[in-house]
Amino acid sequence: MADDKSPAERVLDLVVFGPAGLALVAVEEFPKLVDKGRHHLEGQVRTARLVGQVAVQMGRRQLGQLATQVMPKAPSSPTTSPPAPSDPAPVYESQVTESEPAALAAANGSGTLRSLAIPGYDSLSASQVVQRLAGLSHSELVDVREHEQSHRHRRTILNRVEQLLTGVDVE
């Protein structure tokens, strides 16, 4: 291209001949570009699918191993000892009649008949419990701390309760 073109010729090149040439090249080259893109992406998709399948297989295997560790095994012969009893279900004040408080408190392992301020506490994950702690009173936080220390010992919950009780808030 020569630099001695007039402004009108330059505009014509930019507006008419350039797009026309691009369109002609695109029509000729488009099938080649499609094949090249398909070849490149199909390889990546195949690799991603393979990685995903391996991850799912490993996850299933790990879940199976975890399930065998968590689930009590059935006795295979009469000489094996029965599985150890699991922790009894928590007992709440609303479930207790006046005639049975001492027996149920002892069965619950808590020694007291105190319900926690967080409904369904024992079925919640640590992150779910931590989200609910900020709205509790001082005495409710103390109750949660005592319950957690005597049951599951989840450090995340115990640390957050201590932060809230001492007024140290690290977030």
Would you give an account of this structure?
- The protein has 171 residues and is mainly alpha-helical.
- The chain has 2 domains: 7-70; 93-166, no CATH class.
- 61% of the residues lie in helices and 0% in strands.
- It is built from 5 helices and no strands.
- It has helices at 7-70, 101-108, 126-133, 138-150, 155-166.
- The longest helix is centred in the first third of the chain and has 64 residues, at 7-70.
- 5% of the residues are buried.
- The model is unreliable at 91-113 (pLDDT under 50).
Give short descriptive properties of this protein.
171 residues; mainly alpha
Q: What Rg is obtained from the alpha carbons, in whole angstroms?
A: 34 Å
**Mean pLDDT score:** 77
Q: Helix fraction?
A: 55-70%
Low-confidence stretches: 91-113
Shape: elongated
- Give me the count of strands: 0
Quick gist of this model?
With 171 residues, this protein is mainly alpha-helical. It is built from five helices and no strands.
